[in-house]
Design brief:
Layout (H helix, E strand, L loop, with lengths): L1 H62 L7 H12 L8 H34 L4 H16 L1 H16 L3 H22 L6 H26 L14 H32 L2 H14 L4 H20 L1 H28 L1 H9 L1 H33 L3 H26 L1 H27 L5 H21 L5 H23 L2 H9 L1 H11 L1
């Protein structure tokens, strides 16, 4: 009976994680589809130069999160730990202190960027003289909106800590759509960058107001308990500082491969690597969306019941592995056919190995999101940050060596080695610093990544028949299903899933 109760709680957690992850996927996916529609029209209407500046603006808005020094993530953890505990009355003080501190830090960011703005616009970006003034005026509007954008991150972090992902994405989706559709609408009246940037800034202000109202609704005590607690600042900076290090190093490791390819080989060769890279790594939207949901859940669980936290950790890794295999194995199998249909036979021949190698890396990297969030949930973001600091110089040396020997295929192999080391290292750190979580199931997951993907890559590269490839893929799925059913999923788990689907659906409908 206790086992049944435990599995019931596990499924309840799982259903909530799935629902919230799907909401996050919707929040990421809808703006992306709008972007696919909007970008060709923006290129045609604005011209290459103005559109290039607009892409820089989108990038700046996306990377403004660095100005919060990881405090948004720290705020999620501190609030999630106190939800439904005797310390819940401390939440308003934590929120107000964090928001005020984020606003002050972002204001310093405004001063720094405003001081450098003329150099950025008139010297560094080499913007043509005829649009320098409108770019400068537009960037000024954008810079002064930084405090609003950063504080909105803090408010959204509070909502995520309370697991209100329906509200988060109901605000995020319209703002994301406006980021692409707003400039298209402005094009009907003007091609100047200034009104486009103003639309983007106004949308962020509206988003801030919506997030603020939502926080007041979800946490009514915020209306009456205004407080600034100095004791919170050190934990915020301690957690957020290590998060910032990871946030700075990660983009370097993400984008350095294409810079090395361009400098060592040629700029033209970069496209044979980046094209499959940009498409295939979009699959990582799934673990990223799950990670945003998982972090507050693990933070609360590890603060109240570590056994529950361990259960969620192992179970999530197990089922993420199954889901990602179902996505990545077909991509690996039919990578050549897909690339040929999309970009032509010549392009496919040069990029096929890159695409397959990167897909294996995506599967392994996706699993790394689980221990990464677990380490942060127990208050140890320093572990992953230190590992990234050690990893960076070795990766750069390996990347250069592999490109010199194997070209773009070498870059893909180096990326695969890095993410494999990263994922295994994160799982090992969880094992060392948080008890015996590196159990047989986790070892099976990591080993399964190599066996499944390595086997299917070796087999499908030896044959050209689409029908035979499909047969092999289906055979893999059938064998994997039998193994999963026999070893991976307990009888109680299987019985619960099969016999109680209607009950789970009913619970989900009530939760909505």
């Amino acid at each position: 009976m206790n086992d049944l109760k435990r599995k019931t709680e596990e499924i309840a957690h799982g259903s909530k994680l799935i629902r919230n992850t799907l909401l996050n996927l919707l929040g990421e996916g809808l703006p992306f589809f709008v972007a696919v529609f909007a970008i060709p029209r923006l290129i045609e209407g604005l011209g290459i130069t103005r559109f290039g500046i607009l892409t820089i603006i989108w990038m700046i808005v996306g990377y403004f999160s660095l100005f919060d020094l990881g405090i948004g993530r720290a705020l999620t953890k501190l609030v999630a730990e106190r939800v439904n505990t005797k310390n819940e009355h401390k939440i308003p003080g934590i929120i107000w202190t964090s928001l005020i501190f984020m606003f002050i830090l972002s204001f310093f960011g405004v001063l720094i960027l405003f001081y450098l703005l003329k150099y950025i616009v008139y010297v560094w970006l080499e913007i043509p003289p005829d649009i320098q003034n409108e770019t400068y005026q537009g960037f000024k509007c954008l810079i002064f909106s930084i405090p609003i954008i950063i504080t909105s991150i803090g408010l959204r972090s509070v909502l995520e800590a309370k697991q209100c992902f329906g509200i988060v994405n109901s605000i995020k989706i319209p703002i994301g759509i406006i980021s692409f559709l707003g400039p298209v609408i402005v094009l009907q009246f003007s091609i100047s960058l200034v009104p486009i940037i103003i639309v983007l800034v106004v949308s962020r202000i509206v988003g801030f107001i919506a997030n603020f109202i939502a926080c007041l609704y979800i946490i009514p005590s915020l209306r009456h308990s205004f407080a600034f607690d100095k004791k919170i600042i050190l934990p915020l900076l301690g957690f957020g500082g290590w998060m910032t290090i990871s946030n700075i190093i990660s983009p370097i490791m993400v984008y350095m491969d294409r810079l090395f390819i361009g400098s060592i080989l040629s700029v033209g060769t970069v496209s044979f690597y980046t094209t499959p890279y940009e498409v295939i790594t979009k699959i990582l939207i799934i673990p990223r969306s799950l990670g945003r949901v998982l972090f507050p859940v693990l933070s609360n669980a590890n603060a109240t019941n570590k056994t529950t936290g361990s259960l969620i950790y192992v179970t999530t890794a197990k089922y993420l592995f199954i889901v990602m295999c179902c996505i990545t194995l077909p991509v690996i199998t039919f990578a050549q056919e897909g690339l040929t249909l999309w970009l032509g036979k010549e392009f496919a021949q040069k990029s096929i190995f890159v695409a397959q190698c990167l897909t294996v890396g995506v599967l392994i990297n996706s699993l790394g999101h689980i221990p990464f969030n677990f380490l942060q949930s127990i208050g140890r973001p320093d572990l992953s940050a230190k590992m990234h600091m050690i990893e960076l110089p070795f990766y750069l040396l390996l990347l250069k060596k592999m490109i010199n020997i194997y070209g773009i295929n070498g870059a893909a192999i180096a990326w695969l080695i890095r993410v494999t080391f990263d994922t295994c290292g994160l799982f090992l750190l969880v094992h060392i610093f948080s008890g015996d979580h590196f159990n047989k199931k986790i070892k099976t997951i990591v080993l399964g990544c190599f066996i499944l993907n390595g086997s299917i890559i070796f087999i499908v590269t030896q044959i050209n028949s689409k029908g035979l490839k499909l047969f092999i893929l289906l055979s893999f799925f059938m064998v994997s299903y039998c193994i999963i059913k026999k070893i991976y999923i307990s009888d109680l788990e299987a019985t619960f899933f099969h016999d109680n689907c209607k009950k789970i659906s009913f619970i989900l409908r009530n939760e909505r």
